[in-house]
Write a structure and sequence with these properties.
With about 350 residues, the protein is of the alpha/beta class. About 35% of the residues lie in helices and about 20% in strands. It folds into two domains: about 200 residues, NAD(P)-binding Rossmann-like Domain (Rossmann fold, 3-Layer(aba) Sandwich), CATH 3.40.50; about 100 residues, UDP-galactose 4-epimerase, domain 1 (Alpha-Beta Complex), CATH 3.90.25.10. The strands form four sheets. The chain has a seven-stranded parallel sheet with strand order 3-2-1-4-5-6-11, sandwiched between helices. Strands 12-9-14 form a three-stranded mixed sheet. Uridine-5'-diphosphate-4-deoxy-4-fluoro-alpha-D-galactose (UFG) binds next to helix 6 and strand 8.
Length: about 350
């Protein structure tokens, strides 16, 4: 029987694409997800266990029942803006949740972890961030991802685990077959919101700031296609660092696009202008985040092959058009509003 990989957060956008890629490569994905942010209907590859990562007993039971040998840990709260309003929730889910997962791994003898980290750990962004730069997050989200990395590094040296943290840049796009697109309960990301606005399903997009030190004043990001991202997990799983070692690798395309350039690409893909207004900056947003992707290329032989902006936008538009109806209103559940 093939090796079982526990995929926490496997019912989300990146997690479901990763589970699909794992199954295609001969692994046995076991999705562990609370469904607080993900959808049951995208768990189509492997087994499903509904559970919360803060529930160590549930994790242990899943690892034992499915004979798990490695973990891909994606489950987390991820919205930068929300993290500035409710940092307490981010520490709980992203750090306490990761601690619970690590305890369960040690208890069950599961030695191998791939962790979803983020470019947000770098903080004050700039072009071509490489992994040797000092980390200095500017959002609570980034703080919790960095804390997660440090916790994992300590578990590696204490308990002999081997871990790769993948520092994602901006995940976007959809599978070429239109299967798994970006649709979160509380959508805050640029590309899906801009497409909603352009299709008339949502309000005009607000561009968060036009006074950044970038080529047109709007925020600059490195967009990486979700299929490229999924493939990075496979590469990391197949080639772990030695027992006791932790490593962090950027996963980005190595090129940045501004918010206004993304809007222009969406205009082009849809053949109509995206309605937008310029608003103030969003708390926690750095001016620019662009990966230097050399380390992951040298270490794992991975590089982005599907992350051209126009391809990302076209696949996202095609996927959204196939749904062809407004998604449910974006309401933040009471539990996530201000205390
Ligand atoms: N933006 C807008 N209007 C919106 C939404 C976003 O102008 O309505 C801008 C942001 O200010 C930013 C850019 O579009 O300049 C991208 O914003 P997203 O919200 O799509 O993504 P973020 O860059 O904030 O964050 C994403 C992930 C994080 C990850 C980060 C790494 O959500 O988990 O990429 O680069 F850390």
């Amino acid at each position: 029987m093939s090796d079982a990989v526990l995929v926490t957060g496997g019912a989300g956008f990146i997690g479901s694409n990763t589970a699909k890629a794992l199954a295609a490569a001969g692994w046995r994905p076991v999705v562990f997800d609370s469904l607080a942010g993900g959808s049951r209907d995208v768990v189509r590859w492997g087994e499903f266990v509904q559970g919360d990562i803060r529930d160590e007993e549930a994790l242990r039971a899943a690892m034992t029942a499915h004979k798990v040998t490695s973990v891909i840990h994606l489950a987390a709260l991820t919205e930068v803006g929300l993290s500035m309003q409710r940092p307490d929730l981010f520490w709980d889910h992203n750090v306490a949740g990761t601690a619970s997962l690590l305890r369960a791994m040690v208890a069950c003898g599961v030695p191998r972890l791939v962790f979803s980290s983020s470019a947000a750990v770098y903080g004050r962004g700039r072009d071509l961030l490489d992994e040797s730069l000092p980390t200095a997050p500017v959002s609570a989200y980034g703080d919790t991802k960095l804390a997660g990395e440090r916790l994992i590094r300590d578990y590696c040296s204490l308990f002999g685990l081997s871990a790769t943290a993948l520092r994602y840049f901006n995940a976007a796009g959809a599978e070429a077959d239109g299967a798994l697109g970006e649709r979160r309960e509380r959508e805050t990301h640029l590309i899906p919101l801009a497409i909603e606005a352009a299709l008339g399903f949502g309000p005009p997009l607000t561009v968060f700031g036009d006074d950044f030190p970038t080529r047109d004043g709007s925020g600059l990001r490195d967009y990486v296609h979700v299929s490229d991202l999924a493939r990075a997990h496979l590469a990391a799983l197949a080639d772990p660092p030695p027992a006791g070692r932790f490593e962090a690798l950027n996963v980005g395309a190595g090129a940045g696009w501004t918010v206004l350039e993304v809007i222009a690409a969406i205009d082009r893909a849809l053949g109509r202008p995206t309605p937008y207004v310029i608003g103030p900056r969003r708390a926690g947003d750095p001016a620019a985040l662009v990966a230097d992707p050399r380390r992951i290329r040298d270490r794992l032989g991975w590089r982005a092959t599907e992350s051209d902006l126009h391809h990302i936008v076209e696949t996202a538009v095609r996927w959204r058009r196939e749904a062809n109806q407004p998604f449910p209103a974006r309401v933040w559940p009471g539990a996530l509003s201000k205390p």
